[in-house]
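User: tokens in, sequence out, please.
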């Protein structure tokens, strides 16, 4: 009775096709030592193949990498159209605008409050300053370029942000609005 090819492939940790090839090349499948020697010689020939040059990749690897990149781009485009992604340069510009407005308003506070703070007690000065800071934060929130970006990104008729070539987008899905304390 001929040996079971499936059992031999399991015993030698190889495929059934490899066992069949050994049989076709004249290896006696009832001789375990002959099978082991033939498999070792085959593995040695494969491992002595010249290595791939550094930085090269197989066609299958390149194809898989391309498919992954295409899928990532499609997901980014869909997220951008749904308003979940905003161009990084646009966000950077909005934050620069916030910084400029905040700096200007903070630098203007002392000269704007001189007359109002004159003759007040420490507690009264604290309350006036607190009210002005809260008002500044409220105004900044109400006129926030970030709010405008997230609102504009979710409207369907809004044009997509321009491509800056940097390939970076900002996720707006989890950005909570800024609230001034009451």
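Assistant: Sequence out:
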């Amino acid at each position: 009775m001929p040996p079971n090819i499936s059992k031999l492939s399991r015993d030698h940790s190889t495929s059934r096709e490899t066992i069949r090839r050994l049989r076709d090349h004249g290896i006696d499948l009832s001789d375990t030592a002959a099978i082991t020697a033939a498999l070792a010689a085959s593995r040695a020939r494969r491992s002595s193949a010249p290595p791939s040059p550094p930085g090269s990749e197989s066609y299958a690897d390149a194809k898989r990498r391309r498919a992954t990149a295409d899928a990532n781009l499609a997901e980014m485009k869909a997220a951008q159209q749904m308003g979940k992604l905003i161009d990084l340069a646009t966000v950077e510009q909005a934050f620069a605008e916030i910084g400029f407005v905040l700096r200007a308003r903070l630098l203007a506070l002392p000269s704007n409050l001189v007359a109002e703070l004159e003759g007040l007690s420490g507690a009264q000065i604290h309350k006036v300053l607190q009210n002005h800071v809260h008002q500044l934060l409220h105004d900044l929130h109400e006129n926030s370029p970030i709010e405008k970006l997230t609102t504009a990104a979710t409207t369907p008729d809004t044009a997509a942000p321009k491509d800056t070539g940097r390939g970076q987008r900002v996720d707006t899905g989890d950005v909570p609005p800024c609230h001034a304390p009451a």
